[in-house]
Amino acid sequence: MRIEILKENRLLAVLIFVMIITAAAENLAAKGADPDSTVNFRCSAVYTNRVMLLKNSSPFPWNDPETESHLNDRISLLFQVIPWKDTMLLLKGASGERSLDDEGYRNRMILEQGDIRYALRDGRMNFRLFMRERVFRTRNRTLNLMSDDLPEISGNGQGVKLEARAVKGVNISVTSADFFERSQLEKSGGLPIFNGAPEEVDLVEIETSRDFWHIGLMLAESRSASAGNISLAGGTMGTGIGNTRLSVEFAKSVSGRLKELGDSRFLDIAGSDIRFGRVSRGLPDDMEIGTEVTGFECRVDGIGRFGVVPSYRYCGKRFLWNKGESSPGIIESSILSWWKHQDLSVSAQLEFCDSYSSLLYESYRAISGTLRMEFKEGFESIEKIIISEDKRSTLILSLLDDRYGSRVRLLTRLDDAGGTNHLSFLAEGSIDLDRSWSLRSSLFHQRSGENLYGMELEFRPKDRFLFRAGFGSYNPSNEASSIFHDQVPRFFEKERMISFYTRIWFGEMID
């Protein structure tokens, strides 16, 4: 593993070293008591078993394929050791990896996750050696430049992460990680691999803040054997008065190493081309810019609170950095206004969004309004309307009754109201039969015209044991979220299925 950013920026490396030494020295000077030598050890074992029988299973109907048993029958072992208060070791091993040899398929254990952490007790420095953990995120407020949710990042990285605060209001973070293919991790049994990484990422962030402002700098570099080298430099600035905050963030990407950034104009903005409603014409194609104003609100006696949140986001069509949730060629402006009653649980919001993709030459303009009311004894209603340009309205109604050991939710969506009238409808219900048994059911009508159903029985006598048995014509997942939030609701495959799920937990740590 190589931390190329620090090698090429010796001044930054010296700064990090000074901050760490300063933080450690001040911490030692403040602590005069003898260290606690008590060793804390905890462990857990979690066994899960899932059987999913589908009518259209191949090659035989209602078959549970052996090739999926590594997903359905699994045991996880977790170990945590705290040799002293400032240090912790965490390891997680699990069965379930399948390997093909001369004898056929077999299950084997793999080290799924682990880390070693060291932290000063006053929180001024944190150091971590990690394997396949969710640590890839930045301090940005409007731009998500690193995301753990990307398939090529999630569960594939190992490296080192350092966070330090040497002086008041100044924070620095350094992350260096190697990413491997899943086949390489399985071959090594999950143990750390110290050479031959097909991709490496280095990230440095520095930020300082006070009560009414903040400013930050970010440098990142991705070195890939298949996609080549990509470097990123960005900044964040913010200021405010009272509760109102203005945040401005920007990032520039180039093909190559970090030194290539010095050969190009960083803020190559053509101010003469910027017009009201045409801001993107003067912005460079290799940058991403986001700005937002929050906390702009007022209170009116007897009525409640009002607020407005305007935002703007631009991502050039030649923006190369692909480790976050950026979409090249996207220009989006939005204004969100909201109101909340001062006494009653009643709130409303109105949002205008104008989005344009310069790569697809597609635009989307819509106004959405939402009214939410909460009544006594757990009843809630949400009404939503979406009015889009060149399209008919979308109407959404959600009713929820959660009380007395039962829960009922009705969710209806009507797309192209007054035209084709595409209807989506979901009814979910659950009831507690006693303290251990509960029954759930769902009825789902898709806009395609298909009707689906599901039923599930749950037995949970204690927190450490769970058993579920279900059947239906589809596998329920996130249909409610899709109906309420997506521009076009997801299509769910019709599959007659029977499922069983068991979970048993031993020990002191949860999986």
Rounded mean pLDDT is 86
Rg of Cα set = 27 Å
Uncertain runs are: 1-15, 21-26, 28-34
What structural class do you assign from the helix and strand content?
mainly beta
> Beta-strand percentage?
over 45%
- What is the terminal-to-terminal distance? 29 Å
Largest sheet: 24 strands, antiparallel, barrel
Q: Helical stretch count?
A: 5
Total strands: the figure is 25
Shape: globular
Portion in helices: under 10%
H/E order of the elements? Answer: HHEHEEEEEEHEEEEEEEEEEEEEEEEEHE
Short summary of the structure?
The chain is mainly beta.
Helix and strand topology:
Elements: H1 4-8, H2 10-30, E1 40-54, H3 69-72, E2 73-84, E3 87-101, E4 104-119, E5 125-131, E6 157-164, E7 170-179, H4 182-187, E8 199-209, E9 213-224, E10 228-241, E11 244-255, E12 287-294, E13 296-300, E14 304-315, E15 330-340, E16 346-357, E17 362-374, E18 379-388, E19 394-403, E20 406-415, E21 422-432, E22 437-445, E23 451-459, E24 465-472, H5 479-485, E25 497-507
Antiparallel strand pairs: 1-2, 1-25, 2-3, 3-4, 4-5, 5-6, 6-7, 7-8, 8-9, 9-10, 10-11, 11-12, 12-14, 13-14, 14-15, 15-16, 16-17, 17-18, 18-19, 19-20, 20-21, 21-22, 22-23, 23-24, 24-25
Structural overview:
The chain is mainly beta and 511 residues long. It is 8% helix and 53% strand. The protein is built from five helices and 25 strands. The chain has helices spanning 4-8, 10-30, 69-72, 182-187, 479-485; strands spanning 40-54, 73-84, 87-101, 104-119, 125-131, 157-164, 170-179, 199-209, 213-224, 228-241, 244-255, 287-294, 296-300, 304-315, 330-340, 346-357, 362-374, 379-388, 394-403, 406-415, 422-432, 437-445, 451-459, 465-472, 497-507. A hairpin with a 2-residue loop joins strand 10 (228-241) and strand 11. The protein is globular, with a radius of gyration of 27 Å. The protein starts with a helix and ends with a strand. Mean pLDDT is 86; it is low at 1-15, 21-26 and 28-34.
